[in-house]
Design a protein that fits this description.
Elements: E1 3-7, E2 10-13, E3 18-25, E4 32-39, E5 46-51, E6 58-60, E7 68-73, E8 78-83, E9 92-101, H1 106-109, E10 117-118, E11 122-127
Parallel strand pairs: 2-11
Antiparallel strand pairs: 1-3, 3-8, 4-5, 4-9, 5-6, 7-8, 9-10, 9-11
């Protein structure tokens, strides 16, 4: 049974940092894309970042470029999201997702329906 478990969320002041982790179990997501999405209260789930299997390709939503960094450690079957210079508008539940097709266009990686597996989410709250 495939399971994705996020951790690292919490309450932080604006300008602070958090590092989210997503630990995968049940299978190795080789040759596939993993990503982070977020969902603020009352809003639709939105793409944040995605990373290819070997990490050679990363993409970000414009609003987090230069502040967030996605990475993965395939030996540990774990993906990370380093979030710096956090803003109140970053407040949301953050979800990790796995198993998008690496051979598809990175444009596809931004879509919720590109991923087969999802974690339960970890809440990030940024106070002003």
């Amino acid at each position: 049974q495939v399971q994705l478990v996020e951790s690292g969320g919490g309450l932080v002041q604006a300008g602070g940092s958090l590092r989210l982790s997503c630990a995968a179990s049940g299978r190795t997501f080789s040759s596939n894309v993993m990503g982070w999405f977020r969902q603020a209260s009352g809003k639709e789930r939105e793409f944040v970042a995605a990373i290819s299997w070997r990490g050679g390709t990363t993409i970000y939503v414009d609003s987090v470029k230069g502040r967030f960094t996605i990475s993965r450690d395939n030996a540990k079957n774990t993906m990370y999201l380093q979030m710096n210079s956090l803003k109140p508008e970053d407040t949301a539940v953050y979800f990790c997702a796995a198993d998008a097709n690496e051979y598809s266009s990175p444009t596809i990686w931004r879509r919720v329906d590109a991923y087969d597996y999802w974690g339960q989410g970890t809440r990030v709250t940024v106070s002003s």
